[in-house]
Specification:
Elements: H1 13-20, E1 27-30, H2 37-45, E2 49-54, H3 59-70, E3 74-78, H4 84-88, E4 92-98, H5 103-107, H6 132-138, H7 141-152, H8 157-170, H9 176-184, H10 198-209, H11 211-225, E5 226-236, H12 239-252, E6 274-277, H13 285-290, E7 298-304
Parallel strand pairs: 1-2, 1-4, 2-3, 4-5
Antiparallel strand pairs: 5-7, 6-7
Helix pairs in contact: 7-8, 7-10, 11-12
Length: 311
């Protein structure tokens, strides 16, 4: 008998709702639908509509439940949120992003996202394209080291890459636990500390799903469909994501002329797009105690000015 899965708890739900301020008649986008936690809360908070996006085909099952309950107030579109403007194709009053891997994906060993449970070394959110297994077994030692350092911010990236190449010469990597055990030869696990495989797995997941580029494109795409006075809310979970989000809001509020290395080649800085941006909002101690995933979360949001369309 399969053990029941832990209930998915949306991170910083109260803060997201406060920032979004859903109202009757409004149209909102949940750009990272997952298990639908944000979507359900918004639909319950106001007599509004929610358009939900997700690239993971498994989200379709959950979406069917929402169609039955909320009928014409809910719409699901399968696709990468980098294409948010073309996928949604209409002006909206608010957009929510919960960046990164979902709890559901982590809880499914067959998806290969977690080193805590043995499963195929996959990590593909869309279940298509290059997998983590492909990268680990085919990239050169230098390419692996650079990837782990850049996307995982792992100081021992070169040693880990070397061990991976040595191990795969004997047997190609197939599972998450095989990779984790190889990483532990460089960084042995220590009690009460973050698992030493965390950064390498993060790096592979980001590379497999092109997450940083997807995020950058999605933020700029969101501007094009956000109405005057519309609200853009982003919850992120690690420094690479947060740097992109923080710089994006600063740039679009006219506070800096800097451009992220992940931004499109030309970014207009002629005028501010947001009338207001928040500081980084963090979860309460009580939420972190009940939902460990929230510990590293940061929420940022902005309110769009009249005529604030990305050039």
């Amino acid at each position: 008998m399969t053990a029941p899965r832990e209930k998915h708890i949306p991170v910083m739900l109260a803060e997201v709702l406060q920032a979004l301020a859903p109202r009757d008649g409004g149209v909102y986008v949940d750009a990272t639908f997952g298990n639908g936690g944000y979507t359900q809360a918004v639909l319950e908070a106001a007599d509004c509509q929610v358009i939900a996006l997700d690239r993971d085909p498994n989200a379709l099952k959950r979406a069917d439940e929402f169609y039955k309950k909320y009928a014409n107030r809910f719409q699901f579109i399968q696709g990468c949120f980098s294409g948010i403007a073309s996928l949604v194709g209409r002006p909206v009053d608010g957009i929510m992003f919960d960046i990164g891997v979902s709890s559901m994906q982590l809880d499914e060993p067959e998806r290969g996202f977690s080193f805590m449970k043995e499963g195929p070394l996959d990590m593909r959110m869309s279940q298509k394209g290059l997998s983590a297994r492909d990268i680990v077994n085919t990239y050169s030692e230098e390419a692996l080291a650079n990837l782990i350092y850049q996307f995982g911010e792992e100081k021992k990236s070169r040693q880990i890459a070397r061990k991976i190449v040595e191990a795969r010469a004997l047997k190609p990597f197939e599972t998450t636990t095989e990779l984790a055990q190889t990483i532990y030869k460089v960084l042995p696990p220590k009690a009460s500390q973050i698992n030493p495989a965390t950064r390498t797995f993060q790096a592979l997941r980001i590379a497999v799903n092109d997450e940083l580029s997807e995020l950058q494109k999605a933020l700029y795409g969101a501007l094009d469909i956000l109405k005057e006075g519309g609200r853009l809310i982003v919850v992120d979970f690690h420094s690479l994501e947060d740097r992109i989000v923080k710089n994006f809001f600063k740039e679009q509020s006219g506070k800096t002329q800097g451009v992220s290395r992940y931004a499109p080649p030309v970014v207009s800085q002629k005028s501010a797009v947001f009338s207001q941006i928040s500081h980084a909002i963090t979860p309460t101690e009580s939420e972190c105690a009940t939902n460990p995933r929230a510990r590293s979360a940061k929420l940022r949001y902005g309110i769009k000015l009249d005529g604030g369309k990305h050039d």
